[in-house]
Write a structure and sequence with these properties.
Layout: H1 10-82, H2 89-104, H3 110-122
Helix pairs in contact: 2-3
Amino acid sequence: MPRRMGRPGLMGTMARTAVVAGTATAVSGSVSRRGAQRAADQQQAAAYQQQEAAAQQQAMVDQAAAQAAAEAAAQVQAQQAAAPPAAAPEDRMAKIRELGEMKSQGLLTDEEFAAEKARILAT
């Protein structure tokens, strides 16, 4: 069959249109997928940054809480070390009785007895 010269026929035009349309669809789908993937990657990166920031904030809060707890424990220890242990009431009464006996034996004056008794009751 002889080859036809000039414009393509109806079948050639339809074939060419189909190829162009198919190529355009493939390219547009590829561009859309690439854009969607890029958006997903950016969203994932933003979420990761938010998680990192939250983890850093939590670490700072934990560190501050640990420091406050350590300071409070040190303060309690200092208070316990500074405060002398309180004498038991029975022990106080025994000391006062002993002072009374010393006074009745004439070993203490009234003033000395009163001063020692006040000192014992103050502790």
